[in-house]
Design goal:
Length: about 140
């Protein structure tokens, strides 16, 4: 499977994603959507996302601490909750940015597809030599 990320309109601020999606009838559909480059994500979305990360991390840490205490007290059948990972956090961010696309196409994709998408997205979001950072053109991102 090939995921193409194509700079569009203003390639400094967003990218276009073409994701092959196999429909239930077996046909492959090219799903197109836009993701902002990482530095150009709306501030309100990022604030909400950061709150989610903080809250989720605190909940997991508390659950892990409780589980470790139970294991140390002789309950070996207790499962440790997984720590918050990159795949989960980037999935949550993507879900917030393109909820309709996420719910309809991306949520059910295999982790390998999501990892490839997120890898390409973060790579395309990097500021390249000769480009200015988002802070110097942040007013462009609100258009």
């Amino acid at each position: 499977m090939t995921i193409n990320l194509v700079p569009v309109d203003d390639p400094r601020t967003k990218i276009e994603v073409h994701l092959p999606y196999r429909q239930k009838n077996g046909h492959v559909k090219d799903v197109e959507f836009f993701l902002p480059k990482m530095d150009y994500i709306d501030r309100d979305v990022m604030d909400d996302y950061r709150k989610w990360v903080r809250k989720t991390r605190e909940e997991r840490d508390a659950a892990r601490k409780t589980a470790l205490e139970q294991i140390r007290s002789g309950k070996p059948d207790v499962e440790l909750p997984e720590p918050l990972g990159d795949l989960e956090t980037l999935s949550e961010l993507c879900r917030r940015l393109v909820p309709d696309v996420w719910d309809k196409y991306l949520a059910e994709q295999a982790n390998g597809v999501k990892i490839q998408l997120f890898s390409e997205w973060t790579e395309q979001s990097k500021v390249k030599v000769g480009e200015s950072s988002a802070s110097s053109t942040s007013s462009d991102a609100k258009e």
